[in-house]
Every structure is written in structure tokens, then in C-alpha cells.
């Protein structure tokens, strides 16, 4: 395996990490109207991700930086063609981050409810648009001979792109609800189990459709790793069903673990279906961006490889330590005690 191919999969791993970690952040935010029946329960839900949401978001920054350095042609075409949806994602992430920091600055109910709505919006928009973006990357978009995107926003709003977007929306929602069930107690936990059961059916239907549709797209362009696409897609489906069953049995750790595995396998399915392209052209296959023609020089990739070898284990160790420190459940009693003491 050459360095360009290696970095294609490293970038994929970084996006997998981002979607698994920030994915449940999105899901927790989207679940707020359903699980936050009063201020105590809303604080209980939000506090499940309070210490870690910003750490989870750093994965997309690292993934974007590596994409820019390892595949400058891919980065240029992607960000110039997808600038509007990516801008909306960025604004939504800013909106959500501001809401986490400011909702507790006043005791006003209207103030808090306003920021709660912003948290929901800031979670729904990225969960949907990330799926739309990656669906279009896999399916292919109009690219001319100069490697420039020639479509528009409406071009991206095609059936497959929207279907993948709805799939990521539901997957992240279920992922977040399972995380709330894992991290809370009392009524919020009971409501999370019930909500996960209701969310399971549309999620399974959409995910199954995405896997089958993606396999058909990969088969249509004779993807060299088609057999692996089928295998990993099937494993993703099995993992999702296992997550649903574990939730029914109230095995919170297993349910969340299988849910995380589902997202890992789902993103890997898309990545394998894309190989060896990075952005297929629907105008003419000859205009497509591939791993070979979109990558940086071997010298650049070599330097990046040594840097990743040194710093990636440190980042993973720090993230693991953070999750260990904040591993305990967010209990209702603790929130009520803080309320009584006047803490916010």
C-alpha cells in the first residue's frame, strides 16, 4: 500500500472517529425536546455531553486539516463545490457551541428555552447535511476537466444524497438517545429507553436502504472492493439490530457499543464504496478525482505519516482519559442538589 492510499484510509478513520463521537452529541441535542420535560431533566440531558462535546468536535478539525494536506485537489474541489452546505454545518456547530456556554448564564426560562431550541437546530442541521455531503461524494457529482464542481445546491439535493442524510440523522439520533440512557438515571433514562425503541424502526429501514443503494452504486462502477463493501455493509446492519435488541434488554453499555460500531461500519461502507476515487465525476469518469491524481507528494505524505505516528496516540490517550474522568452517570439527585444550592 502506497502512502496516498494509506492516507485515504487515515482520513477515513478520522471521519469515522468524528461521526461516532460528535454523532452522539448531535443525538443528545436532538433528543432534548423529547427527554427534557422540565429544567432538571433538560440539565441532566445536556450534562451528559457537557464536559466532552467540544473535545469530540476537534476530530473534524483534524480530519479537515489532514484532508487539506494529504489531498489538496480533493479539498479544493470539495470545499468550493460544497461551500454552502459546509457553511451551514459550520454555522450550526457555532450555534450549538454558543448555546451550551450561554444557556445557564441567566435564570430566565425564556432565555434557556431559546438556547435549547438553538441546541436542537445546531444538532439537526449537521446530522442531516453531513450525510447529504458524503452521499454525494460517494455517488459522484458534476466535475469538469479542470476538476471544478459545476453543479449547484440543488444538484446535491438528489434522492440518494437526501436518503443518506436522513439515515445519518436517524442513526445519530438513536446513538445519542442510547448515550443518554447509558449516562442518566430515573425518568430520563426510562424515557430514553422508550424513545430508542420508537426510533429503531425508521433507523433500521433507512440504514438498510442506504446499504443496498450504496452497494448498487459501487457495483455500477465496478468498485474493486465491492465484496468488502457488501461484507461491511452487512456487518453494519447486524450491529444496528444488535443495538436495538440490547436496548430492549436494557443493556445500556452493549446498546451504545453496538450503536457506535454501526456508525463505524456504515461510514467504512461508504469509504470502501468510494475507493479508489475521492470524488467521482458524474459528467465524465475521466474527470474524476482519484487517490492518485488528488494526493500530495510522497515527501509531504512521509512527513505527515511521522507526525501522525507521534501525535495521534497522544490525542487518543488524552481523549480516553477524559472519558474515564467523566465516566459516571449524571444523576437526577445531583442536578437537584445543584439546583437547591443555586448552581447553574
From TrEMBL:
Membrane topology per the entry is:
Multi-pass membrane protein
Instruction: Report if keyword Electron transport is assigned.
Output: yes
The record's subcellular location field reads: Cell membrane
Which InterPro entries does the record match to this protein? Cyt-d_oxidase_su2
Q: Which Pfam families match?
A: Cyt_bd_oxida_II
Keywords carried by this UniProt record: Cell membrane, Electron transport, Heme, Iron, Membrane, Metal-binding, Transmembrane, Transmembrane helix, Transport
Transmembrane annotation, as ranges: 6-32, 77-98, 119-140, 160-180, 200-219, 225-248, 255-279, 299-326
Q: Does the keyword Signal apply?
A: no
* Predominant cellular place of this UniProt entry's protein: membrane
Belongs to which family? Belongs to the cytochrome ubiquinol oxidase subunit 2 family.
- Its recorded name reads Cytochrome d ubiquinol oxidase subunit II
Which lineage do the record's taxonomy fields give for this organism? Bacteria, Bacillati, Actinomycetota, Actinomycetes, Micrococcales
